[in-house]
UniProtKB/TrEMBL annotation:
GO terms for molecular function: ATP binding; D-alanine-D-alanine ligase activity; metal ion binding. SUPFAM superfamilies: Glutathione synthetase ATP-binding domain-like, PreATP-grasp domain. Transmembrane segments: none annotated. It comes from the Bacteria. Keywords: ATP-binding, Cell wall biogenesis/degradation, Ligase, Nucleotide-binding. The keyword Mitochondrion does not apply. Residues 115-327 form the ATP-grasp domain. PANTHER family: BLR7451 PROTEIN, D-ALANINE--D-ALANINE LIGASE. This is D-alanine--D-alanine ligase domain protein.
């Protein structure tokens, strides 16, 4: 099977189309992991980066005629709000692709829309207020401080730092202005939920598999500082080492709560029309209340990230996981 691996490229594409010499760098590990797994599975990987011109991707699909696209694309011209449009291109070209549909990617890009669509379920969310770019005159009197102020349409904790945690209205508005000016996106002020940072993965199409729960632990973090997944807490190795931040399998969660999380995860997956794989970011309070913070379609699929580790706990090797995602993509298209 010919598998086109489509991925984000941060600069102009190499003129000779040879990406392999670049993939040894750590930043490219998720793409390299997927490419190598596809080759081990006996398929033919075809690499295509995307930066600021969509035509090379179209030409490669027309010329190489892949059986499926392994979709790692999240941005165009380094703008993430195009993620759904990129998947829509594959629909227009009538080529199957892995992961979630264009519609689902577009919906989940906006955390506020996600909450509206899940309002009819029993899923709990922290209360929040949206501040459209350039506007700060939104009422937040119904919010209970402290709150977290974060970009509405970004992922990977982009724009989230300890400064996102604010204790009063003045600080909230100031942080909103910072996000508007720095990231040029809408901002979301969301009540801070004290509790454990839990990650719940889901695989499948019609029949869903809830993956073992993962958790971000803050083992050496100061007690007087809020513990939540900032950009540095997720991606900065030195910061993680200094403060004893590590991701591991969640322990000490009773069977009923685990079952409740599984039900919530599958319900959200179906209600939002997700497919292939997704991850829910949750907060679990000391009273076992479950709050959904975000629903992430097409999360990181590196061989050392949450989805891969959780799948391995169920006996699904990394190569088997990649094959499952290819199979899901073919079936969804069919």
């Amino acid at each position: 099977m010919r598998v086109l691996v489509a991925f984000d490229f941060p600069t102009a594409l190499p003129k000779n189309g040879d990406y392999r010499s670049l993939l040894h760098a750590e930043d490219w590990r998720p793409t390299r992991n997927v490419m190598e797994a596809i080759a081990r599975l006996g398929h033919e990987p075809i690499l295509q980066g995307v930066y600021d011109d969509i035509l090379p991707l179209v030409f490669t699909i027309k010329r190489k005629k892949p059986d499926i696209v392994f979709n790692l694309l999240e941005s165009f011209r380094q703008k993430r709000h195009y993620e759904g449009a990129l998947a829509g291109l594959f629909d227009l070209l009538q080529v199957p692709y892995t992961g979630c549909s264009a519609e689902a990617l577009t919906i989940c890009r906006n955390k506020s829309y996600t909450k509206l669509l899940l309002r009819h379920t029993k899923i709990k969310f922290p209360r929040s207020v949206v501040f459209p770019r350039g506007k700060t005159n939104r009422s937040i009197k119904d919010l209970k401080f402290p709150v977290i102020v974060k970009p509405l349409g970004l992922e990977g904790s982009d724009g989230i730092s300890q400064a996102s945690f604010v204790a009063d209205e003045a600080a909230c508005i100031e942080r909103v202005k910072t996000l508007h000016e720095t990231y040029e996106v809408d901002a979301l002020a969301e009540e801070y939920i004290e509790g454990r940072e839990i990650y719940a993965g889901v695989l499948g199409l019609e029949k869903l598999t809830a993956l073992p729960l993962r958790e971000m632990l803050f083992t050496n973090f100061p007690e007087d500082r809020p513990k939540f997944a900032t950009f540095h807490a997720k991606w900065n190795p030195e910061f993680r080492k200094k403060w004893g931040i590590k991701n591991t399998f969640a322990k000490g969660i009773d069977e009923k709560t685990q079952a409740d999380i599984e039900q919530i995860s599958k319900s959200a997956f179906r209600a939002l029309g997700l497919s292939g794989f997704a991850r829910l970011d949750l907060r679990l309070t000391d009273k076992n209340e479950i709050f959904v913070l975000e629903v992430n379609p097409n999360p990181n699929i590196a061989n050392d990230d949450e989805i891969a580790y959780a799948s391995q706990r169920l006996g699904i090797s990394y190569d088997q996981l990649i094959q499952k995602l290819l199979d899901y993509g073919k079936r969804r298209r069919g």
